[in-house]
Amino acid sequence: MGALRVRGLIRGAIVVLIAAAPLVWYACSDGAPDSPAGPSSVSRLIPDLSAAVTAQRHHTDALLAIPGVVGTAVMVQPDGRPGLVLLLERAGIPGLPAMLEGIPVSQRVTGRLMALSDPTRRQRPAPMGFSVGHPAITAGTIGARVRDALGHVYILSNNHVLANSNGASIGDPEYQPGPFDGGTAADQIATLSDFQVISFAANGTNTIDAAIALSTTAVLDNATPADDGYSMPNSTIFGDANGDGLFDDRNALLGLNVQKYGRTTKLTHGQITGINATVTICYAVSGFTCTKTARYVDQLLITPGGFSNGGDSGSLIVTDDANLNPVALLFAGNANVTIANRIDLVLQRFGVVIDGFAPPPPGPLTDLAVTSVSGPSSAVQGSTSSVTVSVKNVGNQDVSTFDVTLQDTTEHVTVGTQSVAGLAAGASTTLTFAWTPSTTGDHDLVARQMLSDDRGTNDQRLVTFTVNPPVTDVAVTGFTGPGSVIVGHSVNVGVTVANVGNQNVNGDITVSLQDSTAGVPVGTQTIHGLGAGATTTLVFSWNTTGAALGGHTLVATDGLADDNAGNNRRTTVITVTPKPLDIAVTGIAGPRSVAQGDTAHVIVTLQNVGEVDVTTPFNVELSDGWAVPVVATGTVPSLAAGATTTLDIPWNTAGATVTGHILFANSKLPDDNSSNNSAGIAINVTAPGPPGPPPPPPPPPPGTDVAITGITAPARVKQGDTAHVVVTVKNVGGQDVTGNFDVVLADGFNGPIVATQTITGLAVGVSVTRTLDWNTAGAEITGHTLFATQKLADSDPSNNTAGIAVIVEAPPVTDVAVSSVVAPAAVTQGSTATIGVTVQNVGGLNVSSTFDVTLTDSTTGVTLGTQTVAGLAVGTSATRSFSWNTTGAALGGHRLVATHSLSDANAVNNQGGATVTVNAPVMDVAVTDVSAPSAVIQGSVATVSVTVQNVGGQNVASSFNVVLTDATAGGTIGTQTVTGLAVGASATRSFTWSTTGATLGGHTLVASQTFSDDNSANNQRSASVTVNPQPVDLALTAITGPAQVTQGDTAPVVVTVQNVGGVDVTTSFDVVLTDGTAGGITVGTQTISGLAAGASATRTINWNTAGAATNGHILIATQKLADINTSNDAGAIAITVNPPNLHVGNLDGVATSNGNNWTATVQITVHNSRHNLVSGASVRGLWNGANPEVGCVSGPAGTCNVVLSNLPNSTKMVSFAVTAMTLSGYVYKAALNHDPDGSSNGFSVTVKR
Prior knowledge:
The structure is a single chain. By secondary structure, the chain is mostly beta strands. The chain folds into nine domains: 49-109, GMP Synthetase, Chain A, domain 3, CATH 3.30.300; 130-354, Beta Barrel (Thrombin, subunit H), CATH 2.40.10; 368-468, Immunoglobulins (Immunoglobulin-like, Sandwich); 481-553 and 560-577, Immunoglobulins (Immunoglobulin-like), CATH 2.60.40.10; 583-597 and 615-638 and 648-685, no CATH class; 706-809, Immunoglobulins (Immunoglobulin-like), CATH 2.60.40.10; 816-919, Immunoglobulin-like; 925-949 and 966-1028, Immunoglobulin-like (Sandwich), CATH 2.60.40; and more. A hairpin with a 5-residue loop joins strand 3 (69-76) and strand 4.
């Protein structure tokens, strides 16, 4: 057979869709069902699709690059002509072609193609189709039980179900049910054994999303549920007449009716409507955006849409007939279509077969498979790339030495041959080849194992790599910096340069920045080499002193002569704005109240917060209410930039209304920022003192009086938000108000009405509350006084109005600040200093875009590094750590300046700095570590490690000693020599301390170095060690027993105990064996009569399993002597108690002729696990693999017969296959079926006429 093409049609693999039902032709037959090898091929009338396939190959990559296009296909139009169809995530995608190379193009909205995964319940043994999953995912489906050549059984499902989309490790547990269905560690059913890695690269291709996990037949069934499933699948895949494990004709899959059983939609039926599909599958979504995709080729499309749903991932898809031949492994889809992997590629990848009915005959199998070939996404002509080849022994025989070759069939050369010194059954090996292509274009690499084995279809694998010509291309890819700058200010402009070619640039690259508007250079910097794919950002400081106002075009150019001059320069425009003129009213003060007719002195503070001196006089007006009427004026003769002044503006209140007044001080100088030109203050004008009181008048009759008794509102509100003003109105008069009246809210006294509410009457003494909503869109950004007024004419207007101040603030802006730069105050020249730069979002808006943080040594003008921050929520901070190597740095102070590149509303806080002093290097050898045990047993030898390091700035060339002393006992333990130490280097010396004769208790060990250096403070270090008496310590060192027993058998459990302490044990002690699964009951005890130090004793405890539950049991052996170390007193072993089982002990078939017809009789012998005859067992099976199911019950002789009568003599033979055996208290173990006389395989028997 030819090589298995892993990559398939990488530049445009196709989907063939049959769109018109009349064009599908089926072969019909009234004969017996198809053989277990699969149904016979059907003949279908399909037009010549080659022109459509060619057009699709030419354009698939470009089409899949269009957002929203998730697949391409070749289909048959309703008129019988070939066509192309685009699979779309949504309707309305612009720019899609209607014709490609003369082939009409239609569109089909399938929606986003998602990897399916969703969760259900625990069952043992777990049927196919039930919930399963890795601990890190939700849940998927057990696709099938598969078996390798060694007889091991595995769960087959998807990578994204069992291996967390590449995120798992071999050996991870698998839960049944999956975690979303409540599965926990207690529900482990299997262990991850292997998975096909999914390529999520933009140019990567995949053929399968699959994984296997090792399990056992005790917990994993090989059939779907009997009540609503399709039963047990066939072990032979569809359409594999030659038995090579691959589909003989993929086109025969078109129109094939299929079925599946999955954990969410259970049993569903569908049809394969597309083959060779190229699709983009979404594996992760953030919001409405797919963030992780993988491209698949050679896939199958199945309709209708309801064929699958979330949680069905991993389901096995089989033919919808009595043969139940496996066809595909379900892994993705949506409401419109299901996507599935070809089952032949899945099974061959792992070297397994479906563990179903009609299994292949057992026997030795030698089978080496090339399981994967991987390498670079693209290679470069003349450059060496690594290509890895994985080979696995998927047979059941160990193999000796064999060769693996890698050939470039495009160049007709052998890349290399490597020898493998044998491979055990089930083992794998990976080889790496160095490949240097000499031509460009697509290269087909074929990896082949050279051992002659029993299956040639998996001996080789082909992958196609694209080889590009060598390209040197350095590009200016971007700018960072503000969009504007005030004239005279300096601004940092970041220029990003990337090596977008495929060749490393080792020489210097000169990058210049020029102000092309003014025709002057800004600066030039040098990049000392740039690797292929690498990026660096240079920060230029542009001083705009003297620059003309307006837009300036800055041009960045890299000076390297490369293969693409078109991207060597890039421009950006920064606007130079004039220095701002800005007079701010920064404060206002005055009396809280004043009697009508008196003068209130209002003190107004102003500051020139701009950058322009004000040399001409300007007025400050005081208004009663917003802007008008003006009640007083003050004049400021001049105000220098940054200066502050205070005005006393007197307000004569004669004639002013006796009520609350809001006075506003307004600077009348036109400037660049009107938002800070005003400030307000509330002053209450009270009635003047009355003359002598006249005689009191008679009391008036009670009148109507409705009062505003309360008003509340937020103190501050952002412009554009709605302020909720709550007003309380009370009838304080003597008459009920029976009519309606309004309460209005005005912005300022007698200002514009911003809200109105109506009150429908109010009884005497009653209060009501109304909320008036003020929409501040368009409101001035300043303080506002809102007045609530009830509009009913009553006897006392003085209480009809109440006011409250609300400040309208500017809407939130983006403002990221460099909040701190943390660096050491001093470093030694040549050392590396770590500088932490923290940026904080101090604005009011989340920052979702990525920006850079750059650290520069402003003393030398050198950029120390650039790091990226991927967005920042309001109030949060991010810290980036920079390493500064001070080798060659000048001695003295260095100002390190951190700057971020985000364009925000406040450039003032966009940088921060710290000063670091670089000092000359010193001579300093330090004892940096003394490693010793915290405690030792008296008489033992302790190992003490002492580490010294040159923490200074100069090499130490002379030798010096390291001395270890016992300060408690006053003796020297040892002395060792260190022959010099380079700057930063360490040396460790190991000392042995014999504690024989050492006093019990704590000992302080002191390590010292003898070299005379500039810092004696770190020349020694100590450690404390406690010397303990010798202990008693018995350890249970081994426990063995059978892995499985049949219920009722006796399991011998062998236990070994050793005296690992330093003291003889002279008393007797017990070893007790308990069943931890059965609540810790004791199943046996043995006594050991003492044990010398270092000696071992072995005892056998027999466990009688009569009455034990049929499941896994954890047996725990514990030695009961109290000793110093309880952690080694016990050991455990797992033993599974299996129920007694049934199996076929013999199958015999007899044919009896009856003239024109004949009768077939099959006798079934039933055995138990000890191969004894069993009576009363119900046996079921199928004649010729077709319903109805027939059965019989074994008699005292352990046998029973099934009979098929009235067979015409034209029928040469019939077959009978056993499908089930049942007997209360027993389980059917089909794997034990056998036939001692060889007349059958133990599963089925053929009766010939």
